[in-house]
Design goal:
The protein is mainly α and about 80 residues long. The chain has one domain. Helices cover about 65% and strands about 0% of the residues. It is built from three helices and no strands. The radius of gyration is 18 Å and the shape is elongated.
């Protein structure tokens, strides 16, 4: 059964290109190879988003209630002023 790649958004591609640019060993890639690696990373973002949505679809009202309660209790992230 062939695997159908998930569509990556423009934002996925922008984030993926940023990652590829930041990785030192990948700086020697040709333009075409760079885009192949970036598209692979972007597709992994899209696949993760699809899987997350699939999981969320199966959640019950009680699951959502617990998630919201935990989210409210979590301390907000703050920047360190060191």
């Amino acid at each position: 059964m062939p695997i159908k790649p998930v569509a990556a958004t423009d934002m996925d591609m922008a984030r993926a290109r940023q990652i590829v640019r930041a990785l030192e060993p990948l700086k020697t890639l040709t333009g075409d190879d760079f885009e192949i690696v970036a598209r692979t990373i972007a597709q992994s973002f899209a696949e993760g988003r699809r899987q997350g949505l699939d999981i969320a679809k199966d959640w019950s009202e009680d699951d959502w209630r617990q998630f919201k309660a935990c989210s409210r209790q979590a301390a907000p992230l703050t920047e360190s002023k060191a």
